[in-house]
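Why run this: before we spend reagent on co-expression, it is cheaper to look at a predicted model of the complex and decide which construct boundaries make sense. The entries below are exactly what would go into the expression plan.
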Amino acid sequence: MKNVIFIAPPAAGKGTISEYLVNKYNYKYISTGDILRNIVKENSKLGTEVKRRMEEGELIGDDIILPLFKEELLKIKEEPFILDGMPRNLEQGKYLDDLFNELNVNNYRVINIVIESDLLEKRVTGRRICSSCKKTYNIFFDEFKPLTENICNHCGSPLISRGDDNLETFKTRIEKYKLETEPLIKYYKEKNKLTNVEATKPQTEIIRDVEKIIEDNQ
Ligand code: AMP
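The model came back. Tokens follow.
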């Protein structure tokens, strides 16, 4: 099974695809966004600074995120893994290359999730997350609305918005994505590591495309 690196704008659906792969194939999952959200919960000075930058839609400095990410990657032994949110810019891409060389990781594929900005805006601003079991919903799409307004279908806990899921932050995040993350698409294409997946298709087709990529022996 191939290791997977997702490159995708905010709310393109990489979290949902990852959840499926983790359940079906036992992938280890590293989300740099989750690592940072855990730091925010600590209520430390670093947590306050990270929270501020995340809420502004800015990237967190490499000096903070890279050592934390490395620590998580080193915990994974032989199991296949998914990287969600890393790398986020060319410098991080080069850092990851060095790390992969050090760890002898070559069996990976970069999945570029392609989706238009208009759809993303609705996905981001309508996203609600269960405060307890973390299941996600969207109030703008019938198939993802909770049965009862603001209540989780699964565990009955209240739903909340992520602090960075508002329109203003979304706009900054998309801008950062275009400026900082999109150059990675060319970078991985030139290395022959990139496959595009269209995210406007039905979920079952997206999953089928991704499964083909990870099971491919090339
Ligand atoms: P995500 O959950 O991937 O959407 O990330 C949420 C936020 O965490 C981003 O908008 C950034 O502020 C921060 N973040 C996540 N991953 C990285 C990274 N690799 N480098 C810098 N900042 C990051």
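The pocket of adenosine monophosphate is lined by residues 10, 32-33, 36, 53-54, 57-60, 65, 85-86, 88, 92, 164, 173 (CB under 6 Å). The CA atoms of residues 36 and 101 lie 25 Å apart. Bring this page to Monday's planning discussion.
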